[in-house]
Amino acid sequence: MSTSVPHVVPRLAVEELFGAPVRAGASISPDGTRMAYLAPWRDRLNVWVESVDSDTEARCVTADDNRSVHTYHWCDDPRWLLYEQDGDGDERWHIYRVDLEDPEAKAVDLTPFPGATVTGFELSVSRPGKALLHLNSRNPLEFDLYEVDIATGELTMLAENPGQVAGWLYTPGGDLYALTLSTDGLIELSQWDAQRGKSRPVTTFEGADYPLGVQPFRTTPDGTGVWLGSNRDTDRTRLIRLDLATGEETLVDSHPEFGLDTRSVVFPTLPSPLIQDRRTGELIGVRYLGERQLIQPLDPHFAAVLENLSKLSDGDVGHLSCDDSGQRWIVGFTHDRDPAVTYFYDHTTGRSRLLFRPYPHLDPDTLAPMTPVTITSRDGLALHSYLTLPLGAEPSGLPMVLLVHGGPWHRDSWGFDAVAQLLANRGYAVLQVNFRGSTGFGKAFLKAGIGELAGKMHDDLIDAVDWAVDEGYADRDRVAIFGGSYGGYAALVGVTFTPDVFAASIDFCGISNLVTFLRTVPDFVKPQLISNWYLFAGDPDDPEQAARMLARSPISRVDEIRTPLMVVQGGNDIRVVKAESDQIVDALRARGVEVEYMVKDNEGHGFVNPENNIDMFRAADRFLARHLGIRQDAE
């Protein structure tokens, strides 16, 4: 039975996996002459710009030394670059403008409203120099639709939210549409006449089929329709075109086995399932996701480009950008052992070159492969999962960490996972399970999670542990559970509902009490909970449902905890507030039970600053080694 990684595999320091990349997130300018990317400046990721064709020195064009920038946008006028930023994880997002022609000019906040947040930010090819955004500066509970003039900063309100609108759609021709959520869970799309206060119904969707809303949902360039992900009358999510005049739906594209890759709904830094021509906005490709990603080209030119791009790496094509001509491309690849390796490709010449590896110190040959596996649940569901085994160790009787994804309306997928690599490097088997309620495996699998928090959703995790033990990979007495957000809730459920299964547990910003969790989410979010949390877990304002929710909450079984527990929390978390972690820690300490508790006051729901991630995973490394019997070498 292996207790440590053999010396032939170099031991990775936590900093090597969780420190800032040297470069990341590259994209090309519309005119094809420059590229922007993220790189450290004063220990924070900022946006840098450099020439694509010459060796002129790169220039840092943003100057945030408090919190890393992760999302930026080229504008149609390459003078301007926009980026998004919040404050210490509070998720109050603002849009900032940078003047690339004036290196001395400071960034301009285009949404300078304290306490407000921007959602649904969108640049449109049909309205050059403009951008659409949803903003709650007038009323924190309601998002109005604005158009911003990028050059002048002028904000124009296009629609004032009357109180029930969850999202707006604005066509190139100036027509306005509203998405509303009914109290019985229907998602309704209507044409909106703001002056007359009237609406014309276009179509409706069953909210229970779309816990995070209908995604994608994007206006066609001619403004007469919407491309959207639909599972109406089917199990898999397909791409359809909705005619805004008639409500008629027409199939655009589908895959016989996979659904659309909609992970960007949860993590906006991931690519959209829709690949559009930069100049015209027309659809040229669609992303699907099974065990691996698949792109179906819808345009002959893009099909030829994609064929050549795919030869550059054995990973999956990730972030893509091209110039207005569609000839010059930058592509980053999703890969389990070569994270986000990025290339430049010129379709005119057929030539390509490596631009960078974000983590050049990581040798792909010393990282562990992530292998898709399928586990059958006790009631016959196929649980599509991923197994990462340590290199150089006999894959038998290993200590194992069950790594649980958040959401729960998200999914694990193939690619580089720094946590899985750290754990595998230390000698653990790592198992990531797409339990029922996860997205991307069909409508029936998703809805099988309704009412099953701490029930069949957790049974799936236990079945996965049993599978790993029965297959010989894992030592039953040395299995830990580790997760963030919903995964943190699952980690707490693991040690309260099944206290004999796990030898250690790490909860990262997880829910300890479903009732208090849903009562403390931001008020502007609560109307959107009808088809997700209220449907799957319950409505805390209904006494009968609240009682059932409490019974499915770890806090109600805190006396069952006898497993070593580590809790990590962001002090500015607005989704799972700090009180969720406080109450489980306080209850344990009141019993005299030791629990490790780490709070980072300048973080929110998930950590961004590298030093905080490094602190957390150093502590997690020590904690797991202590309780799962791995030798802990000094770094």
From TrEMBL:
Q: A Gene Ontology molecular-function term?
A: serine-type endopeptidase activity
Q: Which UniProt keywords apply?
A: Hydrolase
InterPro entries in alphabetical order: 6-blade_b-propeller_TolB-like (IPR011042), AB_hydrolase_fold (IPR029058), Peptidase_S9_cat (IPR001375)
Q: Which GO terms describe its biological process?
A: proteolysis
Leader sequence segment: none
Q: Which residues form the Peptidase S9 prolyl oligopeptidase catalytic domain?
A: 414-629
Q: What is this protein called?
A: S9 family peptidase
**Organism of derivation:** Streptomyces tsukubensis
